[in-house]
Amino acid sequence: MILLATEASGQTADELYRQGKYAEAASAYRQRINGDPNSADALAGLGRCLLRLHRAGEAVAYLSKAVQLKPADAGMKQALARSYLDAGNAGGAQNLIEFLYESDPHNAETLFLLGESMYRSGFYERAAQALKESLALQADNPAAKNFYAVSLAKSGHLAEAEAACKQLLEDRTKPLDLDVLLTYVQLLDEDGRIAEAQPYAERAVREQSDNPISHYWQARLLFQAGRLEGAAKEAEQSVALSPSLPFARNLLLQIYRKLGRQEDAERQAEWLREYNDRLVTRGRQ
């Protein structure tokens, strides 16, 4: 049995963690580490708390040390791989995940990590395969379902992707995943079902109004429906939120031309020319 630091309330770090009191649990784990700097379990506990607190970059150091002290612990390796992924370092996670997969190719969490890693690296077919296997072993994993649905779309399995996205979007008991929602909008748009896609684009704008891609899709659908003033407003908002999006700028250029706003169109055209020039210059370096 692992001995854990106890808060003044009498609760152990593990108990606090299970209750979702991650900041308090982190403090309890730090107390344990102060007394025993080489406690792999306390280091791993602190790392997991930091992950829950969205401080993945800090978690890496503690989980790395825990794995060094207890290299046979697969759970600690999985937590370290997760910290790398959440910190945006898919490459750092890859060796760990490959080792875990070779050791146990039927572990649901390892398969999920493998699928997410493949997804983040752009290997969508492999991602879909790993995520499908993970879900077969552990069906109640919302994040795996989201990654799986989008991976299906990105790997060309369009009918399966549409069904998977729709099922997720109809389940209002789970938090909205914007990637799933916008993937569904794109699938409908590419199939020419503009009117069917419109309510979902509106939902994306309504629920995440500060996301430029939501406004881009709303603008694109309005443009295709001939609602040019509304399309211009949404495209302008997309560009305002993220001025460096070339596809939003290009859409806005097309809308301005349709509206006869030639000066505004020329400003977008000039931005796009400069953007393309920068790409060419970068390619030559």
Summarize this structure briefly:
The protein is mainly α and 285 residues long. The chain is built from 16 helices and no strands.
Give structural attributes.
Serine Threonine Protein Phosphatase 5, Tetratricopeptide repeat; 285 residues; elongated; mainly alpha; single chain; disordered N terminus
Question: How would you portray this structure in words?
Answer:
It is built from 16 helices and no strands. The chain has 285 residues and is an all-alpha fold. The model is unreliable at 1-10 (pLDDT under 50). The protein starts with 12 loop residues before the first helix and ends with a helix. It has a domain at 1-89: Tetratricopeptide repeat domain (Serine Threonine Protein Phosphatase 5, Tetratricopeptide repeat, Alpha Horseshoe), CATH 1.25.40.10.
Chain-wise SSE layout:
Elements (H helix, E strand, L loop, with lengths): L12 H6 L3 H14 L4 H13 L3 H14 L4 H13 L3 H14 L4 H13 L3 H14 L4 H13 L3 H13 L7 H13 L3 H14 L4 H13 L3 H14 L4 H14 L2 H23 L1
